Structures are given as C-alpha cells and as structure tokens.
Amino acid sequence: MKIALCHLSDLHIKTPSDPILTRAKAILSAVRPRLSKDVAPLLVCSGDIAYSGGKAQYDLAHSFIAEMQTALNEMGDRNLLGTIVVPGNHDCDFSAAGDARPHLISGIGSAIDEADLRGESMQDLLKVHNNFFDFAQKLANPPPLKHDRIGWTVSYQHDGGTILVRCLNTALLSRKEEVPAQLRFPLKAIPDRSGDSDFALTLFHHPYAWPPRKTDANCSDAWSPFQTSFSLAMSTMVLHTSARRRTVRPTMWKELLYRPMGQPGSI
C-alpha cells in the first residue's frame, strides 16, 4: 500500500493578487512524477490557509484547493483519497472573538485538561473558527461536528489497508499575538488511535516548540503518550516521526513520503 501525502501549509491567502494563487500548476508538476499507478494521493493542509480568517480569503482558498483536487483526481490511475485541513492561528477571525475570549483563555490557563470540551466556554472560544469550518465543509470530506472541532478523526481504505488521520485544532487558544512555549492544548481532546490502522497520521499546525516546555510543572512529559501513538505527524512545514524519534525537515520528504507502508524501513 502506497500513498502520496501532498502537504500544504501557511498559504496565508489574503487577496486575489497573492502569488500562491497562481502556483497550483507548479506544485502539481512536482507531484506528478511521484504518482505511479499504485500510489494514491492524499491532500492535507496543516493550517494558516487564510491570512486573518476572513470569509473572502477562504473563497479564494477554496478555488485554489479545488483546482488542485481536480488535477490530482486526473493524475495517474488512483483517485484522490481525500482532502483534510486543520486550522492555524491565522485561520482565526479575531473580529468575531468578542470581549470574552482573552478572559476565557487566561482563566483556563494550565487547567485546560480539566475544562469541559463541550461546554459553553469552549464553544465561545471556537467562534473565531466559524469561517474556517464553513470553508472545510465545501471540501470533499465532511467537517467535524460542532462539538468535535478540537480533535477529530478521518479514516480511509486503500488497497486493503486502513489509513487513520487524527486532526487537532491547536489554534483553539490562539491569540492575535502568539508567544512560543505558551500555547496550550487539551490533551484529552486528542482522539485515541482506536481500532486497527496500518498507518496513522496526526495533522496539526503548531510545532512542538509552541506548547509549554517540559520544565513547566503542569506539562511535564505531557506530550509523551501522543508522540508515540502515530506513524507520522505533520505540522507547519515540519514532519515528526515516532519511529525515528526526530524532527524531519522538508528536504527529507521524498525519502519518507513515498516508501511502501508495511515494508522494512517504512514509516
């Protein structure tokens, strides 16, 4: 079983004149040689699709992504498995945040894992992502339910194998001015890797440097169970592999992404 992970991130789409909107063909030309007849593409975007979470920005993004979806479906012998997006901090529409958001973030603080993920406070925090999830709904895959917009899963069947994708909204507590090592995320919102899967991908925006350091008493080794429960994690322009226990830079993508799964040395 082979898949090609077509990873986009940090597009920061703002206006119709943005250069990225003219580069779909160039991106696709780099993908085409790697799509042999037994490789199925999966299009993923790990956040910051828009510049400031505005509806007009997502209208532009939808046209761009739709162009790529159509082209990927026409490449090779395998159809596009799907398209998955998660939000980043630039996908927050802070004009819709209201006065309560800063106070809610400050109040939750290190007690984030004790918060009611389906409570009124969390739903108020998620208002800044309404435009993002409206955009996600227009894509091929259905978006998560309203009460599951912090962590959700998507699965695919391919060549007799199961591909599980866990999606995390690490921009839940994002601020307009973010500070590294201070962004918190409720670990209980990370979906379990339940059931049998041949390959588990975890998709999120913020790299590991953004949550509190391990020296924080409230976060000591907090990420350890998560870091050992995936085959591959993708965040903003960085890959993380549990098998190699290291961060993988973009220059190594070709080596990692197109190796057959289930064979020695595969991820």
List keywords for this structure.
267 residues, alpha/beta, Purple Acid Phosphatase, chain A, domain 2, 6-stranded mixed beta sheet, 3-stranded parallel beta sheet
Structure, explained:
It is globular, with a radius of gyration of 18 Å. The chain has a single domain, classed as Purple Acid Phosphatase, chain A, domain 2, CATH 3.60.21. It is 22% helix and 18% strand. The chain has 267 residues and is of the alpha/beta class.
Low-confidence sequence ranges: 213-222, 237-267
Radius of gyration: 18 Å
Beta-strand fraction estimate:
15-25%
As for the CATH topology, it is Purple Acid Phosphatase, chain A, domain 2
Structural class: alpha/beta
Short description:
The chain is of the alpha/beta class. Helices cover 22% and strands 18% of the residues. The longest helix has 20 residues, at 55-74.
SSE layout:
Blueprint: E1 2-8, H1 24-31, E2 39-45, H2 55-74, E3 83-85, H3 100-108, H4 120-125, H5 130-137, E4 151-158, E5 161-168, E6 199-203, H6 224-227, E7 232-235, E8 238-241, E9 246-248, H7 253-257
Parallel strand pairs: 1-2, 2-3, 5-6, 6-7
Antiparallel strand pairs: 4-5, 7-8, 8-9
